TrEMBL record:
CDD domains in alphabetical order: FHIT
Motif Histidine triad motif: chain residues: 141-145
Keyword list, A-Z: Nucleotide-binding, Nucleotidyltransferase, Transferase
Active-site residues, Swiss-Prot/TrEMBL: H143 (tele-amp-histidine intermediate)
Record-annotated HIT domain positions: 47-156
Keyword flag Heme: no
Annotated protein name in UniProt: AP-4-A phosphorylase
Stored Gene3D superfamilies: HIT-like
Length: 184
């Protein structure tokens, strides 16, 4: 392969969560079994319920807590885009237990510390899309996005070209973040 990046059609990634085409600089993509849009809202169809049963590498799991875990987003908005979520199949934030609420918050803080240590981002976007109308790709199982930001990352590529350069393989990102994640 030459060093020329090639734009992979969005259709080859499964159902797009947005209409931004991804520009993959490494000529390979991480395949994991179906973090695509579920057919229905049941736990049996839910990738976030299925992923913890597998190994960390294939599920892109970065850290496992008691009530919550952290994994890389398969459709990242930026390098290092993590999600923190409860193991339990629950959609509405007010329905979290106290233990889930506090660990989701603590793991979000840890995610920021780890991302700062590994990638030195200039800022973060944190948040949850509650409901499909609000933009949640998998609305039935809530997940908090932790998106590192760099000055100028909203440049002409995503704005004009609807394309984003992601220079590191998700598998490599996962390994680096998991290694930097402190033991609970
Ligand atoms: Zn679920």
């Amino acid at each position: 392969m030459t060093g020329t990046p090639e734009q992979v059609p969005a259709a080859e990634f499964g159902p797009p969560e947005d209409d931004i085409a991804r520009l993959w600089t490494p000529h390979r993509m991480v395949y994991i079994g179906g973090q695509d849009k579920p057919a229905d809202d049941t736990p049996a169809q839910c990738p976030f319920c299925r992923i913890p049963a597998g190994d960390d590498e294939s599920g892109l799991v970065v850290a496992r807590g008691r009530a919550c875990y952290a994994l890389l987003n398969l459709y990242p908005y930026n390098g290092g885009h993590l999600m923190v979520l409860p193991y339990r199949h629950v959609s509405d934030y007010p329905d979290l237990t106290d233990a889930e609420t506090s660990e989701l918050a603590a793991m979000t803080q840890t995610a920021m510390r780890v991302l700062r240590a590994v990638y030195a981002p200039a800022g973060f976007n944190l948040g949850m899309n509650q409901g499909e109308a609000a933009g949640a790709g998998i609305a039935a199982h809530l997940h908090q996005h932790v998106v590192p930001r760099w000055t100028g990352d909203a440049n002409f590529l995503p704005v004009v070209g609807r394309t984003k350069a992601l220079p590191e393989l998700l598998a490599d990102t996962r390994a680096r973040l998991a290694a930097a994640w402190p033991d609970a």
